[in-house]
Amino acid sequence: MLLVSACLAGINCRYDGKNTKIEEIEKLVKDGKAIPICPEVIAGLNIPRDSCEILVTDDGEKKVISRDNEDFTEAYKRGAEQTLTIAKIIGINTAILKARSPSCGFGQVYDGTFSRTLLNGNGFTAKLLLDNGIRVYTEEDFKNVISSELNLES
Q1: DSSP code of 113?
Q2: Does the model's pTM come out above 0.90?
Q3: DSSP annotation of 100
Q4: What is the Cβ-side half-sphere exposure of residue 103, based on CA atoms within 13 angstroms?
């Protein structure tokens, strides 16, 4: 069983109320091979909600802030923790998450300036999953790596 970002499975849960559906990921959910989760929604954030990015403070602390400079860090931490709890209960060992998201981003996230500038790092959920031994990929890895690695073609 895989964990996937709900927006990738076609669920309208993004900050803008839309999704980023990928047919193959939606099929994994429909076939019972993946469970869709949105860390922001399970943390209690609304749909739609303010766009957020990760800001690294001068002392190295990571915060999740909105364009209006509202601090959503605690909600993003809560969503990450709840996602990890669900993953452990189900026995998830691999996740396919939304690239560049402040929750789900893996490898790169937006830098808090709302200028589409990227910085190396992981979203709050991706980092917590990785720290707990769960492999994380993004939808950008899906066709290149994941489907063959996990034998998902069938």
Answers
A1: S
A2: yes
A3: B
A4: 32
In a domain, 117, yes or no: yes
In a domain, 138, yes or no: yes
Name the CA radius of gyration of the chain, rounded.
15
Angular region, 75: left φ>0, alpha ψ -120 to 50, beta rest? alpha
The strand pairing partners of 36, in sequence order, are 4
User: What number of CA atoms fall less than 13 Å from residue 3's CA on the CB side?
Assistant: 29
- The predicted structure's pLDDT at residue 63: 97
Indicate whether 54 belongs to any domain.
yes
Name the nearest CA neighbour of 14 among 51, 43, 42: 51
Residue pLDDT, tens place only, 64-116: 999 999 999 999 999 999 999 999 999 999 999 999 999 999 999 999 999 99
Which residue's entry shows tokens 């803008």? Answer: 16
- 75 found inside a domain: yes
Question: Is residue 126 predicted with pLDDT exceeding 50?
Answer: yes
124-131 helix and 73-90 helix, angle to the nearest 10 degrees: 40
